[in-house]
């Protein structure tokens, strides 16, 4: 092999080119390690495993995952207690104080905007209704979505546990495998479950706490099945397999019912939005149709009655087109 092209280079140029090559190789290696590190973090499938990978101790992990859970047997009651339970079911990283502060700020903003085109009492009512109700509704929807996602993941987690039990693994090993390999929310929840059992909590008690924390039908079914099997004995792997099949069949049936009732739900949505569409069309084309009578003493009561009837219609149509089984 000939290196004649190097003969015309000065020694300092050769050193410079070698340093550039070495710098390029080091840059490539640094980028590769960063990508591998990010991939390793991504392989931590759930929030609990990511906390463990960051080196957090178990006490801080449990505190973060159970931030809004009631301590001991004390359960807060009233609106604040309901808000705390919704935050716990949604597993959000903030407490009721932050929600109340956001609600107050939102109510002030809505009142400032609404007071420019409506009387002060109506603007105050609108601000209080939306400022207090909207954050709670959003949190409740997040909690419902998390429960639905956990119910979808639960059959796979139970199948994984059943396979581990069949080949002879102890229960805590199968729980640890689910906690390591499954994404949130079931991964972190089963990790907490495994921690409780490892610290000496009774099996039935740990699953009952899990069901109370998640507060879904499928979790309560799992808690009851494990409690009965723990008290009477039997093949836990078979119990988990049967329960997994039952939960999966219930989810499939729910999807079929939603598909069949989709036309009714769409009709209900159209009927609910129709008054607002009519109002927007008339107001955009002929604003005087409403502006000429807005100062009449009967206008606001009639408008309030119409809004109340529209809301009642939405509730009735929602009950007629959503089936609970």
UniProtKB/TrEMBL annotation:
The Type II secretion system protein GspF domain covers which part of the protein?
158-282
Instruction: Name all Type II secretion system protein TadB-like N-terminal domain ranges.
Output: 12-138
Enumerate the InterPro entries for this protein: T2SS_GspF_dom, T2SS_GspF_sf, T2SS_TadB-like_N
Q: What membrane topology is annotated for this entry? A: Multi-pass membrane protein
Cellular-component GO terms for this entry: plasma membrane
Per UniProt, the keywords (alphabetical) are:
Cell membrane, Membrane, Transmembrane, Transmembrane helix
Signal peptide (residue range)? none
Q: Predominant location of this chain?
A: membrane
| Stored Gene3D superfamilies | Type II secretion system (T2SS), domain F
Q: Where do the coiled-coil regions begin and end?
A: none
Q: Where in the cell is it found?
A: Cell membrane
- Which is a Pfam family this sequence falls into? TadB_TadC_N
Protein name, UniProt field: Pilus assembly protein TadB
**Could you tell me which species this protein originates from?**
Pseudooceanicola nanhaiensis
């Amino acid at each position: 092999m000939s290196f004649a092209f190097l003969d015309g280079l000065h020694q300092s140029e050769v050193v410079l080119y070698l340093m550039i090559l070495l710098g390029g190789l080091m840059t490539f290696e640094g980028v590769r390690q960063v990508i591998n590190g990010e991939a390793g973090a991504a392989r931590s499938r759930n929030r609990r495993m990511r906390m463990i990978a960051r080196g957090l101790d178990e006490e801080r992990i449990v505190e973060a995952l159970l931030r809004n859970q009631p301590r001991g047997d004390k359960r807060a009651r009233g609106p604040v207690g309901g808000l705390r339970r919704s935050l716990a079911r949604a597993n959000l990283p903030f407490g009721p104080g932050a929600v109340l502060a956001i609600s107050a700020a939102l109510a002030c903003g809505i009142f400032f905007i609404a007071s420019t085109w409506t009387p002060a009492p109506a603007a105050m009512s609108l601000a209080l209704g939306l400022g207090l109700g909207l954050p709670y509704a959003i949190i409740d929807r997040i909690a419902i979505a998390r429960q639905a996602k956990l119910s979808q993941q639960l059959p796979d987690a139970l199948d994984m546990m059943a396979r581990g039990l069949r080949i002879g693994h102890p229960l805590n090993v199968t729980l640890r495998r689910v906690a390591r390999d499954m994404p949130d929310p079931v991964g972190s929840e089963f990790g907490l479950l495994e921690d409780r059992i490892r610290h000496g909590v009774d099996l039935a008690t740990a699953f009952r706490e899990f069901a109370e924390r998640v507060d879904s039908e499928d979790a309560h079914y799992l808690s009851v099945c494990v409690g009965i099997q723990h008290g009477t004995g039997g093949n836990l792997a078979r119990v988990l397999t049967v329960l997994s099949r039952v939960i999966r069949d219930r989810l499939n049936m729910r999807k079929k019912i939603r598909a069949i009732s989709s036309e009714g739900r769409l009709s209900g949505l159209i009927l609910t939005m129709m008054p607002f569409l009519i109002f927007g069309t008339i107001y955009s084309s002929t604003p005087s149709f409403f502006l000429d009578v807005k100062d009449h003493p009967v206008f606001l009561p009639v408008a309030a009655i119409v809004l109340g009837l529209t809301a009642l219609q939405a509730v009735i149509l929602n009950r007629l087109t959503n089936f609970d089984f």
